[in-house]
Design a protein that fits this description.
This protein is α/β, with parallel strands linked by helices and 431 residues long. It has two domains: 2-57 and 368-411, Roll (Urease, subunit C, domain 1), CATH 2.30.40; 59-332, Alpha-Beta Barrel (TIM Barrel). The protein contains twelve helices and 15 strands. A hairpin with an 8-residue loop joins strand 1 and strand 2 (18-26). The chain binds zinc ion. The site of zinc ion has 4 residues, from loops. Zinc ion is lined by residues 63, 65, 109, 325.
Length: 431
């Protein structure tokens, strides 16, 4: 048993913070959350504390791609040059970088072959130090569609049905469908790919075995089809049109809310690039090239429209969850939460989007997303109070996974590899 003291606890339920409490953990699960000192404890119990810190449930990232995280390299460069073996090793490191940012559960939305299966099994077996992982394995895509090189091209209702059943047999945790083109060469982000019937078949098969289905939807047309097909969740929803415009669709938005669909905006994609270009533009001795000017304008248009879409969905009461779509960098999690706040979510709503609501969206709300008795003991210590300043969500000092301290930044060495405390945590997998 371990005892964790919390000067300030935000438990993820949306209730107001509790001060000066203790969290008793037994066998990787939270047993009690009570006022500190209110219950006699055995004298030999291990006690952990971080004075002045705020304790929160571990963050959840509903959208990653562990096989990437390869910096500025293009998809095609990585796909053509890196082996599955290298992707597994890099993916393990990516998972660890996310863990250090406070992410204790992540959902991978698409990788080649069996890359993410291996990473998930290694995490569950305690071979690598990683957040808990759910995977879609290979995303379903039309022949030549976005992410076709993950090797799950499927066409037609029966073709999609068969591919979905095969993925479920292999043990994926959910189904990911590429409903429009994307960053893959030769695909068109502004147009839908699958038909309503094809996506409905995949969703039906996932639901048959109690699993969820989500879709990559950049094109406005693909959002509309995903709604008709009955998907549980949509990713990105850029509402892109063939002329390049991004236009809100109230009729489709109403249906999304009526159907109770979960929204995963992946707000932060491209945001660091915008920051970089803005810094360059502001520098006295530097000037943006014509291409960079265009990139900056396009990035800002995407950001502003996405902030507007999030804000409108929030006003309509739709569930919005946090996901990084980590492609180039892992471990840069909280910037997306800051952007949620900019879109109008209160600091408490931001925290819920990253914890209990995200847990519900991916079907693990009985185990994760709140700091309550009976839940798995995944929580983090932040320096400061995120309700006063959402930027504090970046200040993750300690990560507790399955009841054990796995990151304690006070113990990190100044140079070299980060110190690993309790590096061999075997977790109870989430099934
Ligand atoms: Zn993605």
């Amino acid at each position: 048993m371990e005892l964790y003291l919390a000067d300030n606890l935000i438990d993820g339920t949306g209730e107001k913070p509790k001060t000066n409490v203790e969290i008793l953990v037994d066998g990787g699960r939270i047993k009690e959350v009570v006022p500190a000192g209110s219950v006699p404890r055995p004298s030999d119990i291990e006690v952990y504390s971080l004075p002045g810190a705020t304790v929160l449930p571990g963050f959840i990232d509903v959208h990653t791609h562990l096989m990437f995280g390869a910096g500025a390299r293009s998809y095609e460069d990585v796909i053509n040059n890196d082996s599955d073996d290298l992707m597994i090793i890099r993916g393990s490191r990516n998972a660890y970088l996310h863990l250090r940012a406070g992410v204790t559960m992540l959902r991978d939305c698409g990788a080649r072959n069996k890359v993410t299966f291996a990473i998930r099994e290694a995490a569950n077996a305690g071979i690598i130090l990683s957040p808990r992982i759910h995977i879609s394995g290979r995303p379903l895509t039309i022949t030549g569609g976005h992410f076709w090189w993950c090797n799950e091209e499927a066409d037609g209702v029966e073709g999609v049905r068969a591919a979905t059943r095969k993925l479920l047999k292999e043990g994926v945790d959910f189904i990911k469908i590429m409903a429009s083109g994307g960053g893959t060469q030769g695909t068109d982000s502004t147009r839908a790919s699958y038909t309503v019937e094809e996506m409905a078949a995949a969703t039906f098969e996932a639901h048959q075995v109690g699993k969820k289905a989500t879709a990559h939807t950049l094109a406005a047309e693909s959002v509309e089809r995903a709604v008709e097909a009955g998907l549980d969740q949509i990713e990105h929803f850029n509402f892109l049109h063939p002329d390049g415009s991004r236009i809100w669709d109230q009729v489709v938005a109403d249906k999304i809310v009526q159907n109770g669909m979960v929204l995963s905006p992946t707000i932060q994609t491209g945001y660091r690039q915008i920051e970089k270009l803005q810094t360059k533009a502001a520098a006295e001795d530097e000037i943006l090239t014509e291409l960079e000017e265009k990139q900056l304008a396009a990035g800002l248009y995407k950001l502003e429209t996405k902030l507007e879409f999030i804000s409108r969905f929030k006003e309509m009461g739709a569930p919005i969850v946090a996901g990084t779509d980590a492609i180039s960098v892992f471990g840069d999690y909280a910037v997306g939460l800051e952007l949620f706040h900019r879109a109008g979510l209160s600091p408490m709503e931001v925290i819920i989007s990253a914890t209990s609501l995200a847990a519900k969206a991916i079907g693990v709300e009985d185990e994760l997303g709140t700091v309550k008795p009976g839940m798995l003991a995944d929580f983090i210590y932040l320096d400061g109070d995120p309700l006063e300043n959402v930027q504090k969500l970046n200040n993750v000092e300690t990560v507790v996974l399955n009841g054990k301290v796995v990151v304690d930044k006070r113990l990190d060495m100044a140079v070299g590899l980060p110190a690993l405390a309790d590096g061999d945590v075997k977790m109870s997998p989430i099934v």
